Amino acid sequence: MPVFFSMPKLGLNMTQGVIVRWLVGEGDQVEPGKPVLEIETDKATQELEAPGAGFLARILKNVGDIVPCNDVIAVILAPGEPMPTSIPVTIGDGIASKIEPTLLPSTNEVPQAEETRINISPVARVLAEELGVDISKIVPHGGRIKREDVLAAHEAQKSQLPKTPISETRTAGPSLRKKIAEHMSKSARTVARVGLTLEVDARLLVEWRNRSKTSENQVNYNILLAKITAKALQEFPYMNSQWLNDEVVLMPEINIGIAVDTDRGLVVPVLKGVILKDVETLQHEFDAASQRAIRSRSFVSDFEGGTFTITNLGSFEIESFLPIINIPECAILAVGAIQKKPVMNDSGDGIIIRPRVMLTLAFDHRLTDGGPAAKFLQRIKHLVEAGEVN
């Protein structure tokens, strides 16, 4: 019996995936537990395993294709099993519609009904529009125009143009970059963002981190601040809320995302149940998730369930900044560089040097007001200056 391999729905918000690379070819043996291809979602690049044993009889979706969840991407058959007379378009919710298997014509003749249709992958079509390439003039290497064909046509087109100074350079954005752009643009359009900033004495925070250096996993400032923030969110639950369907929803768990910069773009691994774990455990979980993100091997679950976000540009010597809120969350905490500054001593009669850090809270005014948000940030300040959270 044929096995129809479909694009899986790996998360609640996943609607489609992009084919990044086929790890096997048509006719190759496949079996459960062995990766068959790589896909990219809006959150991660992930390998997919074969849903059944046999050989890969037909690949229906090519590299670069954007495939909706549940759409069939390949057919797996047992040895000697014939290709089915019909192949479902989708496998999953609802009744799958059927299409006949399509074969490339053996001659140059094209059926009349197909004369006006150009066989091009969605990714190639978008790229052609961005580069200004006429797809009707592209001669594909195969039966379908792919991204590589568009790039080749673009290079040929440039070589025919007169040599003039280049005023700008444009490249097609990666899938993750486009998703980040969509998410940030939606946040900027819909959120009533307000920013509050406090300068905080970080002496005990620095000492806390230095003490952790003797442990197996050195704890970084982001993890300490996540633990501190979780304590404050527990005391001020209205900041651990989300705007969903025009309602303020208080979230039952405290899950804190920490922004990580990768070659592919910004991703936010989420630490689950922060209030219940010690900092060493949180550091271990964060190291594993961030390394998967850097290697483009993240699990979709790495990025799900966040209720609050921390972003830190201190390593780049940035003193303070106002970040975009990671919707639908209520707020995000921006952390600047820890710098030594002169401050008045406690008695007020002298100057001392202390490490200081700027903390900026960006919050959604639809969910809470300035006074309550200020109390929350002030509580984070007090906890940082206390240097430890039990």
Give structural notes:
It is a single chain. By secondary structure, this protein is of the alpha+beta class. The protein folds into three domains: 3-99, OB fold (Dihydrolipoamide Acetyltransferase, E2P) (Beta Barrel), CATH 2.40.50.100; 112-159, Dihydrolipoamide Transferase; 193-386, Chloramphenicol Acetyltransferase (2-Layer Sandwich), CATH 3.30.559. 25% of the residues lie in helices and 26% in strands. The protein contains seven helices and 21 strands. It has helices at 122-131, 147-159, 175-190, 203-212, 221-235, 279-294, 370-386; strands at residues 3-6, 16-22, 29-30, 35-40, 45-49, 54-59, 66-68, 72-77, 87-88, 98-99, 193-201, 241-244, 247-250, 256-258, 260-262, 265-267, 270-271, 308-312, 331-335, 339-344, 351-364. Strands 11, 14, 17, 18, 19, 20 and 21 form a seven-stranded mixed sheet that branches. Strands 1-8-6-3 form a four-stranded antiparallel sheet, with no helix packed on it. Strands 5-4-2-7 form a four-stranded antiparallel sheet, with no helix packed on it. Strand 12 and strand 13 form a beta hairpin. Helix 1 (122-131) packs parallel to helix 2 (147-159) and helix 5 packs across helix 7. The protein is elongated, with a radius of gyration of 26 Å. The termini are far apart. Mean pLDDT is 85; it is low at 94-116.
Q: Write the CATH fold name of the largest domain.
A: Chloramphenicol Acetyltransferase
Oligomer: single chain
In whole angstroms, the N-to-C terminal distance is 58 Å
**The top level CATH class name of the largest domain:** Alpha Beta
Going by CATH, the homologous superfamily of the largest domain would be Chloramphenicol acetyltransferase-like domain
How are helices and strands ordered from N to C?
A: EEEEEEEEEEHHHEHHEEEEEEHEEEEH
Rg, alpha carbons: 26 Å
CATH architecture tag of the largest domain = 2-Layer Sandwich
Number of continuous helical runs: 7
Strand content: 25-35%
Helix content: 10-25%
Which structural class should the secondary elements be placed in?
Answer: alpha+beta
Average per-residue pLDDT, rounded, comes to: 85
Query: How can the largest sheet be summarized?
Result: 7 strands, mixed
Instruction: Return residue spans where pLDDT drops below 50 for at least 5 consecutive residues.
Output: 94-116
How many beta-strand segments?
21
